[in-house]
Specification:
By secondary structure, the protein is mostly loops. The protein has 1 helix and 2 strands.
Length: 61
């Protein structure tokens, strides 16, 4: 979980977000708990997780 907002707590001291894996959707999330990816299980769930709403209109689970 991204507790700092810049993922610095997730990448051993660097402030860069890790790359998205196959179970993740790449976007700018609206909540800091995610870095630059959200879990695909959140795609098309009726709630906005990406600033551009791509998780609801583009992403496939």
């Amino acid at each position: 979980m991204n507790d700092c907002g810049d993922c610095s707590d997730e990448t051993w001291g660097s402030a860069a977000c890790p790359p998205c894996g196959p179970g993740w959707w790449s976007c700018s999330p609206v909540h800091f708990q995610f870095c630059s990816c959200i879990p695909r299980r959140l795609c098309r769930d009726g709630a906005q997780h990406c600033l551009d709403w791509s998780d609801e209109f583009v992403c496939t689970a």
